[in-house]
Amino acid sequence: MDWDDIRFFLGVARAEQFSAAAARMGVDTATVARRINALEKSLNTRLFDRRHTGCVLTEAGERFFQTAEDLESNILRAQADLSRSDVLVTGAVRIAAPDGFGTLFLCPRLAALKARHPALTIQLVPITRTFSLSRREADLAVTIEQPGEGRLVCRKLVDYSLHFYASRKYLEERGAPITANDLSRHCLITYVPDLIFAEQLTFMPEIYGPSYSRLECSTAVGQLEAVRSGAGIGILHDYAAHRDKHLRVVLPALRFDRTYWMVTHANLHGIARVRAAIDFIVDEVRANRATFRQEPG
Questions:
Q1: Selecting from 1.10.10.10, 3.90.230.10, 3.40.50.300, 3.30.1490.110, what CATH number does the domain 3-69 have?
Q2: Half-sphere exposure (Cβ direction) of 69: Cα atoms closer than 13 Å
Q3: CATH code reported for the domain at 160-259
Q4: How far apart are alpha carbons 155 and 114 in whole angstroms?
Q5: Shortest CA distance to 164 belongs to which of 193, 143, 186?
Q6: CA torsion through residues 7, 88, 119, 271, sign
Q7: Do the bridges between strand 152-167 and strand 120-126 make them parallel or antiparallel, or are there none, so unpaired?
Q8: Nearest C-alpha neighbor of 262 from the set 142, 173, 171
Q9: Could you tell me which residues are beta bridge partners of residue 167?
Q10: Distance CA 297, CA 252 (A)
Q11: How far apart are CA 69 and CA 31, in angstroms?
């Protein structure tokens, strides 16, 4: 039995498609199919049911998946033990994060991580509705939901707050709402309802009703820019908006509290490149903790 064949098996099991596994592994689909066929032949059993919509593990495949993950875990632990004796952190680390945290907080700070580890390739990718660490779509993730399943290592990163904001220009032209009911007379900058990937992003469900005028944007960064431009009133991250001289908090008593979580797959938690990224993010958040929560008013 060839370890490379097992590696391709894990890739297909996680991607649930030969073509998707091939794209992630940087090979063509024929190579993936050849590797899977070789593994099934060596085991004398069928591991996948091939369907038009993708691949599903057979009962034998489900049992072998656990064995393959354990084998992968042992190899990764061995790599981690060896890498601890090596000062140089190399390879690629993929960090998944909501665009608010990833773009507005983390991205401007990644130059410091790169300077600390020049041989490290840093990949910052967005969290999506179908994102899964179990499928190895990232090495570590910052999430706004605490995961409840999977072989994951999870720790609380930081609590953060959000408030309603408007630009000074908008408030000069339209005036400020005094109560939450006054929002019905303003244009609200919100997420696109059917593209919200986590329940925690629906801060006030009622504002998505037909009585409210809205400009909908699927990203937190887009909403921030729309509010800054004077398009309307939006719920923004305090750590990104509170010190912006173009913005003002409105309805300060309405504060929304959320939490960021740091999550990694158990098999990757001890790998040097992953640990370097985790330690950097934790240190940066700790140094800026006071900016993440703003008191009413």
A1: 1.10.10.10
A2: 18
A3: 3.40.190.10
A4: 24
A5: 186
A6: positive
A7: unpaired
A8: 142
A9: 247
A10: 5
A11: 21
Residue range(s) occupied by CATH 1.10.10.10 in the chain: 3-69
Q: Where in the chain is the domain with CATH 3.40.190.10?
A: 91-159+264-292, 160-259
Is the whole-model pTM more than 0.90?
no
The residue among 119, 155, 150, 122 whose CA lies nearest residue 136 is: 150
Considering the segment(s) 91-159+264-292 as one domain, its CATH architecture is: 3-Layer(aba) Sandwich (3.40)
Among the listed residues 193, 172, 174, 173, the one whose alpha carbon sits nearest the alpha carbon of residue 182: 174
* The residue to which tokens 């060596």 are assigned: 42
Q: Which pair of tokens denotes residue 282?
A: 């934790």
Please tell me the distance from the alpha carbon of residue 271 to that of residue 207, in angstroms, as a whole number.
Answer: 44
Largest pairwise CA distance in the chain: 75
Tokens coding 50: 């091939």
Q: How would you write the pLDDT of the chain (297 residues) with one tens digit per residue?
A: 788 888 888 888 888 889 888 888 889 999 999 999 999 999 999 999 988 888 889 999 888 988 887 787 777 666 656 655 445 677 889 999 999 999 999 999 999 999 999 989 999 998 876 676 666 778 899 999 888 766 788 999 999 999 999 999 999 999 999 999 999 999 999 999 988 888 889 999 999 999 899 999 999 999 999 999 999 999 999 999 998 999 999 999 999 999 999 999 877 777 888 889 999 999 999 999 999 998 765
Read off the DSSP letter of residue 102: I
Can you read off the two tokens belonging to residue 48? 């996948």
